[in-house]
Specification:
Layout: H1 9-14, H2 20-32, E1 35-39, E2 43-44, H3 56-69, E3 75-79, E4 85-89, H4 91-99, E5 104-109, H5 114-127, H6 133-147, H7 151-158, H8 162-170, H9 176-184, H10 189-195, H11 201-210, H12 215-238, H13 241-254, E6 258-262, E7 268-272, H14 277-287
Parallel strand pairs: 2-4, 3-5
Antiparallel strand pairs: 1-5, 3-4, 6-7
Helix pairs in contact: 3-4, 5-6, 6-8, 7-8, 10-12
């Protein structure tokens, strides 16, 4: 038996300086046979992995489970040039294992290119429903941008419908603040999809959170806003340029929305919207 066999991966890597030729072969042979027990510090997370948020409470629960039963599913990793191993799937297990005080973790090391790394990370997290909708969409977008995936190839690879992929990617058209609401759990993906059709979804998103709207309530509210906006646009299309100019001057001078409703002949109405008694008193003082 060659010296070094059976000592474990930590000892083998530690011996590289003295017996690089022999021990490097042993390490490769160990890794290629499948699962190995690897010192936890040899693993490094993948900065490009789709999942960005890890619940502390969830990690603590998993840590307790690992203390009692160990890690049931090996971590998947690939070898890096500096003798470190990058986690491809299982970063949550790796984090929880550290909390549990483990010195070694079961690892399967395989060779993957960058596209496969992201693809596997997406699939693993999607199967466990660990990704929020924005993390998932960012993963899709990265595969498209950097690895030339189409919506069609994404749907086949991830076993999702093309409509699912398209709807996920549409979420990235929302303002970053609204995307943060989804990532933080303040809004669900259903809420986010309802907001996509709006030109300025941020104030509506904040209002929905404040009022604790359900998805159905928000959809109804957005439908009302779109209908109201269309009516206002039709009304504006009927007005003369002189009337629209007067409306703008009044709005600019008051700092409040002013609307001129033209009647027959020279008759009409002037509507000024206010949202507080202070604003109403301001208008009255202006009129006085």
């Amino acid at each position: 038996m060659k010296k070094g066999l059976g000592k474990g991966l930590a000892a083998l890597i530690g011996d590289l300086d003295d017996k690089a030729d022999i021990q490097d072969e042993v390490i490769k042979k160990d890794i290629q046979t499948g699962q190995v027990n690897m010192p936890i510090e040899f693993l490094v997370p993948n900065r490009d992995q789709p999942r960005k948020n890890f619940s502390e409470a969830s990690l603590n629960e998993l840590s307790q489970s690992i203390k009692q039963k160990g890690i049931l599913l090996p971590i998947l990793a690939r070898s890096l040039d500096d003798k470190k191993f990058q986690i491809i799937a299982g970063e949550r297990r790796w984090r929880a294992a550290q909390k549990a005080g483990l010195n070694e973790v079961p690892v399967i090391v395989k060779s993957f290119n960058e596209g496969e790394v992201l693809e596997i990370g997406l699939i693993e997290n999607m199967q466990r429903e660990n990704l929020n909708a924005i993390e998932e969409a960012l993963g899709f977008e990265k595969l498209q941008r950097e690895h030339k995936y189409t919506q069609e190839s994404l749907s086949k690879t991830l076993s999702k419908s093309r409509a699912y992929v398209a709807n996920a990617l549409r979420l990235l058209s929302l303002p970053h603040k609204v995307q943060e609401f989804v990532q933080n759990g303040d809004l669900s993906p259903g809420h986010a999809r309802a907001l996509i059709v709006l030109a300025d979804p941020l104030p509506v998103a904040k209002f929905a959170i404040k009022k604790k709207m359900s998805v159905r309530q928000l959809e109804s509210y957005v439908s009302y806003l779109k209908k109201d906006s269309k009516l206002k646009q039709n009304d504006r299309n009927k007005k003369s340029s002189d009337t629209l100019l007067l409306e703008k001057k009044l709005t600019d001078n008051l700092g409040l929305s002013a609307q001129i409703v033209e009647g027959k002949g020279e008759k009409g109405e002037l509507k000024i919207k206010y949202s507080s008694y202070d604003q109403l008193n301001f208008i009255i003082n202006k009129l006085n």
